[in-house]
From TrEMBL:
The keyword Cytoplasm applies. HAMAP family: RRF. Residues 25-187 form the Ribosome recycling factor domain. It is found in: Cytoplasm. GO terms for molecular function: ribosomal large subunit binding. The gene is frr. Coiled coil: none annotated. GO terms for cellular component: cytosol. Responsible for the release of ribosomes from messenger RNA at the termination of protein biosynthesis. May increase the efficiency of translation by recycling ribosomes from one round of translation to another. It holds the Pfam family RRF. This is Ribosome-recycling factor.
Length: 189
């Protein structure tokens, strides 16, 4: 097997690490630091029609005021399920039902709430790091098997392993920078 084929495989592992960083970025969009944004409800999943679905597939989310979100549920039968999903989320929100419309006033950000959100940001970052490390572990296993099977030399194994580690370190550093930035944003009064 040629080393270019392994370089292509490393590119695939890099893409998967990039995806973990992108997921973290989307999750951070859902953590509010001050004003209402529709992305705040992006992480919420609803038990709908026998499946777990993103909120965006059963309702329309709006932010008509800086401290208010609205959720217009499309199917009257799904209102209670949507309300329960929002209430049970880690976001600390209490929706009020008005027909098929849920009004969600955003509570003022207390110091305690800011600390909770900062911890949530750290948890999301740790999950992203675990994903990156899992990709690294899978890549290292792939390379060791290739060396054992005689597809690459020991020198090539070391070179590719070093590249895999460098990729991992770069992604972990990016995640660390993201969490520091998000926590500063959350704690800023």
């Amino acid at each position: 097997m040629s080393s270019t084929r392994f370089d292509t495989r490393l590119t695939d592992f890099n893409r998967r690490m990039d995806a973990a960083v992108e997921v973290l970025s989307r999750e951070y969009g859902g953590i509010r630091a001050g004003r209402a944004t529709v992305s705040l409800l992006d992480p919420i999943k609803v038990d709908a029609y026998g499946a777990i679905m993103p909120l965006s597939q059963v309702a329309t989310v709006g932010a008509p005021e800086p401290r208010l979100l609205t959720v217009q549920v499309w199917d009257k039968g799904m209102v209670k399920a949507v309300e329960k999903s929002i209430r049970d989320s880690d976001l600390g929100l209490n929706p009020m039902i008005e027909g098929q419309l849920l009004r969600i006033p955003l509570p003022p950000m207390t110091e305690q709430r800011r600390q909770e959100l900062a911890k949530l940001a750290a948890k999301y970052a740790e999950d992203a790091k675990v994903s990156v490390r899992n990709v690294r572990r899978e890549g290292m296993e792939f390379l060791k098997k290739a060396e054992k099977d005689g597809d690459i030399s020991e020198d090539e194994l070391h070179r590719l392993s070093d590249e895999m580690q460098t990729m991992t370190d770069e992604h972990v550093k990016k995640i660390d920078e993201m969490v520091v930035h998000k926590q500063k944003e959350i704690m800023h009064v």
